[in-house]
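Morning - adenosine-5'-triphosphate inputs below, output right after.
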Amino acid sequence: MLALSQPAQPQTANRRLAVQAIGLNKRYGTGTSTFLALDDVSIDITENEFFTLLGPSGCGKTTLLRLIAGFSFPTEGQILLHGKDIAPLPPFKRPINTVFQNYALFTHMSVAENIGFGLKMLGWTKPLIAERVAEMLKLVRMESLADRRTSEISGGQQQRVALARALAPQPQVLLLDEPLSALDYKLRKEMQVELKRLQTETGITFIFVTHDQEEALAMSDRIAVMNRGRVLQVGRPKEIYNAPVDRFVADFIGESNILHGRLAGPAGADGHRVDITGTVITAYSSAAITDAGSVQVLIRPEHVDVLDAPSADSIPAVIEDEVFVGTDTRLQLRLNDGSIFTARLTNSPEREKVRAPGTQVWLRIHGHSARLLGGEYVEHR
Ligand code: ATP
């Protein structure tokens, strides 16, 4: 079994920290019936960052968000905002606002009244509220619907109002709990761009919760991948995609082939030599290997060429299925050890080749794309 030491969190030292979670545990229930929803979670989130908590249902994302908002309290650990412990502050005294999944708008009020509601509660004067509401309407491009009731606008427009309302008091941190999940696919894509724009324009730290890996990759400066109450990896989207720390992260983010191999001699300067079904390829690891033996190698479906004749370092495979999916062709192949491998080839007018099931081919792995994985595989719950 391969043992990899955990890589350090990416450098955030040059930017000021906004939110720090330090050794957070959250246990629900009492007596013998308790459940550990957060297990020793520590995260640093910097100012002006679009930071995403990503993980399967039940992994603890909302629980972490609720602790930061002050809607519930950690069993152990601390949350700092700009270096200060916020435990004594009730939710309304924290410079933190939340956009909920269901928006929670007041349907009997107009768009403008909804946006100004929180400011009124905070004691802002009428002229200041009017000024701020106008700014917010402009920011979310809703000026023309200011007087419309929120029961009479579309889902995407309701989402904009919820954002404007949450941004109006100029919070230092905005928490967003799956805010796009109620929208259809096309609107969701549009709102992803919109959210990113709002974050860049306002410079507010966004902490965004989703279980949608594509959404997380598209929008985030950094992502924390969570499972079973633990943070498994924190990194920029490309780091998480290209260098997942373990099999769970590799499987959760994008499509993956995870092959079993054996280390074939000492590592070279350009990576580790790994024997996969009799072919020795080079695989990379960002962490030191502390134990040798059988290893797991991650190869993304788009990181191979499919050849009609063998070449150096190519892995023999047999085509089982070939499916045209518009921009790509997906091939399902079987390797000599019986394992299944998925390849994805980009289509072009020149590449029209259709291979019959049973055709012998060879897979050439793109340089620097095979990665050694550590850790045990944990099933999604
Ligand atoms: P989803 O994506 O489905 O919203 P999540 O990652 O946000 O999931 P949480 O809502 O944080 O997950 O829940 C984490 C775990 O804690 C789940 O197993 C859930 O059942 C449990 N849990 C949440 N709230 C409570 C509660 N009040 N009492 C007991 N268990 C709870």
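Note: Residues 1-11, 375-381 have pLDDT under 50 and may be disordered.

O.
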